[in-house]
């Protein structure tokens, strides 16, 4: 598969993942019945799996890897943080204040990951 196609899949999945996470936060905080719909439990996992699979394809194509290239190490840990904060926001947070704080922090981490991706730099605010 070509690099450009992989990158299109990757960035599209990143955008869809963001929109779904944003909406699921709002639905969850509002107690919306949408959160109980079947697709809401399934589609985010499919999108996130594709996001990761395309990430794997991209790193192999450009031969740059987490724990070797700093910007990809940053993306890796960013993704781990995004997943952990996301699970606190949508599932494990003990009360609404904790869940909303985790949701906001996850959105900020997501923005950081995109900046790191665009700049190929783990400190995108500085350089
Ligand atoms: C929430 C998670 C992620 C988001 C939002 C994200 C976002 C992006 C975006 C927006 C780009 C395009 C950058 C550009 O064209 O300038 C990109 C490219 C890329 N991402 Fe991700 N990414 C994520 C996770 C990962 C992970 C975990 C890895 C691997 C460890 C990874 C590896 C790559 C690679 C290798 C590219 C291609 C860079 C290039 O153009 O040379 N991504 N990502």
Can you describe what's shown?
The protein has 127 residues and is mainly alpha-helical. It has one domain. The N and C termini lie far apart (32 Å). It is 78% helix and 0% strand. Bound molecules: protoporphyrin IX containing FE (HEM). Protoporphyrin IX containing FE binds at residues 7, 10-11, 14, 51, 55, 58-59, 62, 66, 72, 75-76, 79, 82, 110, 113-114, 117-118.
**Number of domains in the coordinates?**
1
- What form results from the Cα inertia axes? globular
Number of strands: 0
Mean pLDDT: 96
Strand-residue proportion: under 5%
Distance between the termini: 32 Å
Write the SSE topology.
Elements: H1 3-29, H2 38-62, H3 70-92, H4 96-119
Bound molecules: protoporphyrin IX containing FE (HEM).
Protoporphyrin IX containing FE binds next to α1, α2, α3 and α4.
């Amino acid at each position: 598969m070509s690099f450009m196609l992989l990158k299109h899949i990757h960035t599209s999945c990143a955008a869809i993942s963001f929109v779904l996470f944003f909406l699921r936060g709002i639905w969850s905080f509002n107690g919306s019945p949408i959160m109980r719909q079947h697709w809401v439990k399934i589609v985010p996992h499919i999108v996130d799996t594709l996001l990761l699979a395309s990430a794997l394809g991209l790193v192999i194509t450009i031969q740059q890897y987490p724990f070797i290239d700093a910007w990809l190490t940053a993306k890796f840990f960013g993704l781990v943080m995004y997943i952990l904060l996301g699970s606190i926001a949508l599932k494990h947070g003990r009360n609404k204040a904790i869940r909303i704080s985790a949701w906001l922090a996850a959105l900020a981490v997501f923005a950081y990951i995109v900046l790191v991706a665009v700049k190929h730099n783990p400190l995108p605010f500085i350089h």
